[in-house]
Amino acid sequence: MERITVSSPSLPVRAPLGALLLLLVQPITFAQVYSAFAEGDRCQLIRAKEHAVLVTEGCTSPVGLCVEGIIAGGGWINGKTQATILGVAPSVGLPGIEPDTTLSVAGDRTIVTSHGSLTLRFTAVFDTARGEFSELLRVTEGTGKFLGATGTLYLTGRLSGISVEGDFTGEVCLAGSATE
Q1: 23-61 pLDDT, tens per residue?
Q2: What is the pLDDT of residues 83-97, one digit of tens each?
Q3: pTM of this structure
Q4: What is the DSSP secondary structure assignment for residue 93, as one 8-state letter?
Q5: Taking a C-beta distance cutoff of 8 angstroms, is the pair 174, 145 a contact?
Q6: Which of these, 55, 60, 123, 153, is most buried using a 10 Å CB contact count?
Q7: In whole angstroms, what is the distance from residue 178 CA to residue 58 CA?
């Protein structure tokens, strides 16, 4: 094996310059890390499962569609959930482009946890032929720990008969720190 030796007249200059650069960048890095942890105290990334069913009893939806269930594995949002469909449009509002079996849906969802409740407005696309859906949920209000909360969640899943199985992702941020 041949040994390679590297020599450079500029090496002594680069080493102190590199050290100086590290010293200048290091405070910024620490500030960014501190900021990420401070944000982490009041924000939580969500990865959760929804297990729910379609319900008609007690449903206040103008189109007769409500969902009730539980959310598990979601940290702050573990608890009971209820969704009320407020409106439905066939063909996702795009007749001639999307089939009538693909619906555009809008409604309200409430998540009740041991920390308080979180209310979200959602828009969704539901492919009734495949039983698949995708929701975009925006936090609109909250109580308890969630008072003043912000955030966006995404729910994707399947409907089979009256059973709804889905996966939540996204982020919820509290108005204060998580320890308040």
Answers
A1: 333 333 333 323 333 345 799 999 999 999 999 999 999
A2: 999 999 999 999 999
A3: 0.75
A4: G
A5: yes
A6: 153
A7: 34
